[in-house]
Design a protein that fits this description.
The protein has 312 residues and is an alpha/beta fold. The protein is built from 9 helices and 14 strands. The protein has helices at 2-23, 59-67, 95-104, 118-121, 124-127, 143-150, 154-164, 174-177, 227-232; strands at residues 45-49, 73-77, 109-112, 135-138, 168-172, 211-214, 237-241, 245-250, 253-258, 262-265, 279-281, 286-288, 293-295, 302-303. Strand 13 (293-295) and strand 14 form a beta hairpin. It is globular and about 55 Å long. The protein starts with a helix and ends in a 9-residue tail after the last strand.
Length: 312
């Protein structure tokens, strides 16, 4: 009996001592559990732009700011512009011309990355420029050209590592669509085909998971074009971007910035028969892709999307 009392007393003393130490701040508080994002990168930032003229939109400047400023290392990828011309000849890109708009914005360390050959893209020598890159930008054109050059290569892996280091990946038009999961308008036959019959052009680069991204929806009247895609692939979140408009993605949230609107195709919502199956976000809206709700900026309060879906 005495031994049991002594044992109990020892436990009480140890507990009291541990509590006292913790109260004096000598025991570290347990680290909060980190939730792995379902959509965006766990680290780093995506800037996904709907095409058009970005002068005056602040989007390019935001890209530079999020990368850490003009002294950081930037890589520009023009490959969506085409690997071969109409005659089947390889297109030669002039690095100075490709990087010139960025040099004008003040970048001090900026390089072009391009090859039409996936075997080259799979080499250490070619992919090395991405090893210390803080930010990568994909120019516009046809997104399947990017897939042909870099899918399943060492370069593809290094692009994802830019985000893993906390870097930034941005792109406009084709450079927006390549950041999603399903590659809309990936058919070689033309950009009007939303769902390609070519299996090798069905998948984008999955910087933003479980998504299908379209662009130029205002100027080319593409507001409804993602409807059949989301009907066939209901697990996807459809994102249609207007020109000169971007979403800034961190984890499972994005904020809209720029000149116009973003169409959000969300298959989990119930729509009325007279409504189109998407709703519209405006600059300044913060959207939580996981909860499928608009988040009031700066408050952390989630509210159902208040904007009325488009009507037929």
């Amino acid at each position: 009996m005495r031994q049991r009392r002594l044992g109990l007393l020892a436990v009480i003393i140890l507990f009291a001592a541990a509590q006292s130490i913790a109260q004096r701040g000598q025991l570290p508080a347990p680290a909060p559990a980190t939730e792995v994002p379902e959509y965006g990168p766990a680290k780093g930032t995506l800037i996904i732009v709907g095409g058009g003229n970005l002068t005056g939109s602040g989007i390019n400047e935001k890209f530079i700011e999020l990368a850490g400023g003009p002294d950081k290392n930037f890589v520009i990828v023009p490959t969506a512009g085409g690997n071969r011309n109409a005659q089947g000849e390889l297109i030669a890109y002039d690095e100075q011309r490709i990087i010139a708009p960025w040099v004008k914005l003040g970048l001090k360390h900026v390089r072009m990355l391009h090859t039409p050959d996936p075997k080259v893209a799979d080499t250490e020598e070619f992919a090395r420029v991405l090893r210390d890159a803080n930010a990568v930008w994909f120019n516009g054109g046809r997104q399947w050209n990017i897939v042909d050059s870099y899918a399943n290569t060492l370069t593809y892996g290094e692009l994802h590592k830019v985000l893993e280091r906390g870097g930034v990946i941005g792109g406009s038009s084709a450079g927006a669509t390549i950041q999603g999961d399903y590659l809309v308008r990936g058919a070689v036959s033309g950009p009007d085909v939303m769902m390609t019959p070519e299996p090798n052009h069905e998948r984008a680069f999955k910087f933003l998971h479980r998504s299908a991204i379209d662009q130029h929806i205002n100027t080319r009247n593409r507001w409804d074009d993602l409807i059949p895609v989301i009907k066939k692939w209901p697990e996807l979140l459809g994102i249609g971007l207007s020109e000169s408009t971007a979403i800034i993605v961190r984890g499972d949230r994005f904020e809209v910035m720029g000149a116009w609107k973003v169409a959000e195709h969300d298959n989990t919502r119930v729509y009325q028969p007279w409504e189109k199956p998407y709703y519209v976000l405006s600059p300044g809206d913060v959207y939580n892709m996981k909860t499928r709700m608009i988040e009031k900026y700066g408050t952390g309060v989630l509210t159902p999307a208040t904007l009325t879906p488009a009507t037929k």
